[in-house]
Amino acid sequence: MNILKVLSLGIAAGLALAAHADNTEAVLRESMKPKNQARMDRIEQNALQTACSNAADTVANDKQARQLREAAQASVRYPANGKYLGDWRRGQMIAADGTGLQWSDDPKAANGGNCYACHQLDKQEMAYGTVGPSLLNYGQRGQSEAMLKYTWAKIWNPNAYVLCSHMPRFGDAGILTEQQLKDVMALLMDPTSPVNAELVHE
Ligand code: HEC
């Protein structure tokens, strides 16, 4: 195929997209096909996502922001037995596991947390994303009741603290189980976990 043909095909595709530019949802609906557990409800937005879906990542007014934040905070379910910390070794595997919820994944298998996709969590791991802040030495903040609750709520529903957060709602959206959340909590907060390796050996 010559270069002009390639270019004109590209332009045609560009025009087709531009025609839909005012309606991203229509493009998504036309292009996405439901398969296995990945169904069309994946593109339904909740009230907060609708409010945050603009270039500025902010909601229209303070009243709406307050209502959405309160709803996000009210969504958090704290551990029934009051114990927040599980096993950091299991937490490390969950944080590094990027499988789950795709049409090709086994819906009966446990989901991963994929934390490394956005966070640095271990000095020894070179492959990590930077969409979120580095969580190295997170344990430095201690294990007060306030820190345990903050961290739990943050992972359960990140929107409870940063309204238009881009982090997944691991508890609220049912991505991780309560036990998995505890294991990931231990990874962040246990002074002997690789996240806090520097603190221990200081
Ligand atoms: C798609 C990217 C993404 C993924 C995946 C992700 N995070 Fe985040 N995370 C963020 C972003 C962005 C922030 C900062 C903005 C905010 O607070 O929402 C953040 C903030 C945090 C914070 C608060 C940090 C602080 O300084 O108080 C914690 C704790 C956290 N993430 C833990 C996790 C854990 C544990 C996982 C895996 C189970 C995870 N994140 C997966 C994007 C992500």
TrEMBL record:
Keyword annotations: Heme, Iron, Metal-binding, Signal
Coiled-coil zones: none
Pfam families listed in its UniProt record: Cytochrom_C (PF00034)
Signal peptide, first to last residue: 1-21
Record keyword Signal present: yes
InterPro entries referenced in this protein's UniProt entry, alphabetically: Cyt_c-like_dom, Cyt_c-like_dom_sf, Thiosulf_SoxX, Thiosulf_SoxX_II
Record-annotated Cytochrome c domain positions: 86-192
Name this protein carries in UniProt: Sulfur oxidation c-type cytochrome SoxX
Natural source organism: Zhongshania guokunii
